[in-house]
């Protein structure tokens, strides 16, 4: 079943990690994909995402995009015109940023985190919304938050604040864009196996993962395709009456604590 046939999606931060998983799932369901990322090569190694999708018979292209630069986000949305124009915008790009107590926090590092994780979502949403409203055919915007955007976690206080901002921005934007037929939703991943959770904030493959697994009802950490499936649903017509919603994808951990 091709849930996204004839739809074009722009996915930020999709060269690797969760974004790559979303891009692959979208392509499997018939979407044309604009891979918008600050880098072309996956951090995990392997074939660039857009080339992989092309090899598998899907329409895809890569656009260098720094989400902190609004003009870059506009260029990514414009690249979707090659495939008929943007139908779906996935604001996925993000970083872990500083993991110091507030009293030791480098404010320049904090501003950089907010610029990527929150301002980047605003930039991408604005660029996509303008194009969607102009086309007059509705659309879907999916913003990547985190379980840390639902419950604040000490040690990653700046990250929690930014992701919480994404959640409330999503609800407010859904109210604004609903009359134009544009749905806006947020996804809140738990621990997903990516370079971020292996290198930037090491959890996967460490003793911390062993301690974490018994608290997750499904007894495993997530994979990028787990997020890809949920985002595909939100982008598809199956979710035509779903907006201003948060979906937690964490194997059940948050609601089992």
UniProtKB/TrEMBL annotation:
The keyword Ribosomal protein does not apply. It comes from the Archaea. The keyword Cell inner membrane does not apply. SMART domains: PKS_KR. It holds the Pfam family adh_short_C2. One of its GO terms (molecular function) is oxidoreductase activity, acting on the CH-OH group of donors, NAD or NADP as acceptor. Keywords: Oxidoreductase. Residues 7-190 form the Ketoreductase domain. InterPro entries: KR_dom, NAD(P)-bd_dom_sf, Sc_DH/Rdtase_CS, SDR_fam. Belongs to the short-chain dehydrogenases/reductases (SDR) family. This is NAD(P)-dependent dehydrogenase, short-chain alcohol dehydrogenase family.
């Amino acid at each position: 079943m091709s849930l996204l046939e004839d739809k074009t999606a722009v996915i930020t931060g999709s060269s690797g990690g969760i974004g790559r998983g979303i891009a692959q799932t979208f392509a499997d369901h018939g979407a044309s994909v604009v891979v918008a990322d600050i880098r072309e090569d996956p951090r995990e190694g392997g074939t660039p995402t857009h080339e992989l999708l092309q090899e598998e018979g899907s329409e895809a292209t890569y656009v260098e995009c720094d989400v902190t630069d609004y003009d870059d986000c506009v260029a990514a949305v414009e690249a979707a015109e090659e495939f008929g124009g943007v139908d779906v915008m996935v604001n996925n790009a993000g970083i872990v940023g500083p993991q110091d107590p507030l009293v030791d926090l480098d404010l320049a590092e904090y501003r950089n985190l907010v610029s990527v994780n929150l301002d980047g979502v605003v930039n991408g949403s604005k660029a996509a919304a303008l194009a969607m409203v102009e086309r007059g055919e509705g659309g879907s915007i999916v913003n990547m938050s985190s379980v840390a955007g639902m419950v604040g976690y000490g040690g990653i206080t700046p990250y929690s604040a930014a992701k919480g901002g994404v959640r409330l921005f999503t609800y407010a934007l859904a109210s604004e864009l609903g009359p134009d037929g544009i749905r806006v939703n947020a996804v809140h991943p738990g621990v997903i196996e990516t370079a971020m959770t292996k290198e930037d904030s090491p959890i996967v493959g460490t003793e911390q993962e062993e301690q974490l697994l018994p608290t997750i009802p499904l007894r495993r950490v997530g994979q990028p395709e787990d997020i890809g499936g949920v985002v595909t649903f939100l982008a598809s017509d199956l979710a035509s009456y779903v907006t201003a919603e948060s979906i937690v994808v964490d194997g059940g951990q948050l609601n089992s604590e």
